[in-house]
Each structure stands twice: as C-alpha cells, then as structure tokens.
Automatic annotation (TrEMBL):
PROSITE patterns: PROKAR_LIPOPROTEIN. This is Uncharacterized protein.
C-alpha cells in the first residue's frame, strides 16, 4: 500500500527579525473537517444551483435591482465548482472531475432544492465512473458599494493645499450550499453552506477614477466563488497547509555552522552538530540545541521523538518559549491519528 507522507520536503529558509533565530516554512498535511467513507475514491462535481426553467426572470429582476452583473451568478457558480475540483485534485484523498454539460436545475436562490433521486445519482456516477457526487445545490451573491469623499492635504506646485479625494468600497458575500451523495450506501453524508466575504477599496481624484481601481462585479463574484469552492475541498479532503517553524542559529559555533545544512534541507548533518550542542554545560545553548533537535525530528517525520526533545528543552532547560511548540506538536499528533482514519497507508 502506498505510504503518504505528512510533511512535504520543500523547505524555504528565511531570516526573521530576531538575531537568534531563523525561520523555515514547510507544508503539512492536515485532516479534512469530516471523514468521508473509504469506499469513496472518486467524486464528480455537479453544478445544480441554476434556477429551474421559468424561474430565471426573478433572478434577472434581482440582478437588475441590486446592480449585479447579468449572468454573474451563473458564471460564479461554475467557478465554485472549479475551485472545489482544483482543491481536491491537489490533495491526496480523492480524484475529482467536473460534470460539465449536465443540465440539472435547483432554485437559483439560497434555498436548497429537493435532493436528487438515487436513480439520477446512480446514472451520473456510472456515466462519469465516480463513487459519489459533490453537488453545488445553491449559489447566491450579494454585492454592495459605498461611495464617500474626504478632504486631504496634497502638495501642489510646492504648496500644501486641501483637495477632495474620492473613495469607493465594494463588498461581496457569496453563499454556496453543498450536498455529498454517496452512491454506494445511497446516503447523503454531508450538507453544508459556505459563505465568503470579500472587500475592495479604491481612491482617486474623481468618483470615476476611484471606481476604476475596483474589480468588476463579475470578477469579484468569480474570485469569491472560487474560494468558497476551495473551502468545501478543505471540508471533505485532507489538504496541505503551509506552516512556519523557527530554529536557533546562534549560541555556539556548532549552532552557527548547522545553518548551512538547514538551508539545503540536510537535517541529518545539522543533527550531528546540534546533538553535540545539546550536551553543552551552558543551559541556554543546550536548551536551544534541544529545540533544534525537536525541529529536525519533525522535519524527518518522527513527531514522538520531536515531542521528547521539545519537552527536554522546556522542562530540563527552562526554555519557556518551547511550550507553544509542544502544543503544536501535540496538535499534529492528534491530526495524524485522524489522518489514519481518512487516509489508510498514512505514514509519518
């Protein structure tokens, strides 16, 4: 069985403001918010949020009254589905494919329609060779724009004068409602709604100039919708999250020398130096080295050894800052147990 690593090998080293430490960034696999049954290995992403025939006029009227772009919600709903499919396919749990070209309609509002029949679900699953359907059942967007002006001081021809500055604010909230249909057990195993709020501001010497600094309403809906789709991906699929870790680069010559190995992701060579510093009679140096040993163990995928070293730094060498790292490691250990349920074959 294929083993799935929980830590990516791509590590970027950057300096932070402290003269004692440097920071590394890496990607950590975190569990999904819900555990999807293992018999589901592939999913189809279906857009069913468009209004049924005969109900489109009310949506057109709403868009006309609120100023929303005509057809913006239609385009936005497709971007929601694209966002979900992208998120799933960049993570190790499922494979997803868009069920494009299917014309199954819903309410066109925030209200959920009646569920698909299991005959419909089964036919679609067979057509696309998938085990389940993640269906966008609802999609709606609300847009508001606010205009204002203020007096600001500017330098004009070498003189300070008061001029009028114009401001335009655009805000959007999208609503995406989902159902997850399990075609094997014939059960709806999840139903949830995601909201995404985004805001943009523009300033200029005229109202028109300020408006030009804002994205189009259609573009704003598409961006917010895509993100809402990605959030559904986080709910049902383990995903990679970028995290930062720090290590000590100063204290003695070995701590300084180990830095060149960290820069090239050579933790084994760094450990050779840090393990010697961990025996230092100087409590500060040995404590820092113990923290670095904990980090190396985490980067090599051994969280239990990492926790042992972190506890040593905290308890034996009174490194107070280590408590936060101990909490992070304990959280990761709990996440690993959950990942084992979601991804058989998971290994540290």
């Amino acid at each position: 069985m294929k083993t799935i690593k929980l830590l990516s090998l791509a590590i970027i080293v950057v300096l932070v403001s402290s003269c004692k430490t440097a920071t590394v960034y890496t990607n950590v696999l975190v569990p999904a918010q819900i555990t999807v049954p293992q018999h589901i290995q592939s999913v189809g992403v279906l857009n069913r949020s468009l209004p049924a025939k005969g109900e489109g006029w009310s949506n057109f009227l709403e868009g006309f009254i609120t100023g929303e772009s005509i057809m913006a919600d239609r385009e936005g709903s497709y971007n929601v589905c694209k966002g979900l499919a992208f998120k799933i396919n960049t993570n190790p749990r499922f494979k997803a494919q868009l069920m494009e070209g299917e014309d199954l309609r819903g309410t066109g509002t925030k209200e959920f329609p009646v569920p698909l029949t299991w005959d419909q679900v089964d036919a679609l699953c067979k057509k696309y060779n998938v085990d389940a359907i993640v269906c966008l059942e609802t999609f709606d967007s609300d847009i508001s724009r606010r205009s204002a002006s203020r007096q600001v001081e500017r330098s004009v021809n070498g003189e300070n004068v008061m001029v009028t500055e114009f401001l335009e604010d655009l805000s959007i909230r999208v609503n995406a409602g989902w159902r997850l249909y399990d075609n094997v057990t014939k059960k709806i195993i999840d139903q949830d709604v995601f909201y995404d709020d985004k805001a943009w501001s523009g300033t200029g010497n005229s109202p028109e100039d300020a408006v030009r600094k804002l994205p189009s309403k259609r573009s704003a809906i598409n961006d917010a919708g895509y993100f809402a789709g990605e959030m559904m991906g986080v709910r049902i699929s383990p995903n990679w999250v970028r995290v930062s870790r720090y290590y000590y680069k100063k204290g003695d010559d070995r701590l300084k020398s180990a830095r060149k190995f960290v820069k090239v992701n050579n933790w084994k060579e760094a450990v050779v130096l840090w393990s010697q510093s961990a025996k230092s009679p100087d409590n500060k140096i040995s404590g820092r080295a113990c923290h670095n040993m904990a980090l190396a163990a985490e980067m090599e995928g051994d969280l239990n050894i990492a926790l042992e070293w972190a506890n040593k730094a905290y308890k034996d060498h009174m490194l107070k800052k280590e408590r936060a790292y101990i909490n992070e490691l304990n959280t990761r250990l709990m996440e690993v147990e959950k990942l084992k349920e979601q991804l058989p074959g998971t290994g540290e």
